[in-house]
Specification:
By secondary structure, the chain is α+β, with helices and mostly antiparallel strands. The chain is built from five helices and five strands, in the order ααβββββααα. Strands 1-2-3-4-5 form a five-stranded antiparallel beta sheet. The structure holds zinc ion.
Length: 118
């Protein structure tokens, strides 16, 4: 359904820190430590997932797992299709600086679900 090119582009060309910025309040806690952006690992919940800008993967120094863009979105509760569709929009935004109209639909739904749950 999705071309390998799109998936590769999402994994490699869309920086994880851009995604954390876009996720805003839905993003896991993050902190810059010694110049590296660290965020709360979706697997073990320690603030030790550190972004490696060279391969655009986060590595958790606690549970030793690697996290890519798509993994992160799935851990936040999106399914694969939603994750790819959101990331595709952000990739477009990252490259062009323009927001697509469909952007944030899933995010808004997600925020609503979160509010209802609390
Ligand atoms: Zn971890």
């Amino acid at each position: 359904m999705y071309s390998t090119n799109i998936l590769r582009s999402i994994r490699n060309d869309l920086p994880l820190h851009f995604i954390l910025k876009q996720l805003d309040e839905l993003a896991p806690c993050s902190k810059t430590i010694e110049g590296f952006l660290r965020f709360q690992c979706p697997h073990c919940h320690e603030l030790r997932a550190t972004i490696n800008p060279k391969n655009n993967l986060a590595h958790c120094f606690c549970c030793q797992r690697n996290i890519n863009n798509i993994d992160l979105m799935i851990e936040l509760g999106y399914d694969f299709k939603q994750a790819v569709s959101i990331l595709e929009n952000w990739l477009h935004q990252y490259h062009t600086g323009k927001v697509r109209r469909t952007e944030n639909i899933f995010l808004q739904e997600m925020a609503k679900t979160k509010t209802n749950a609390t």
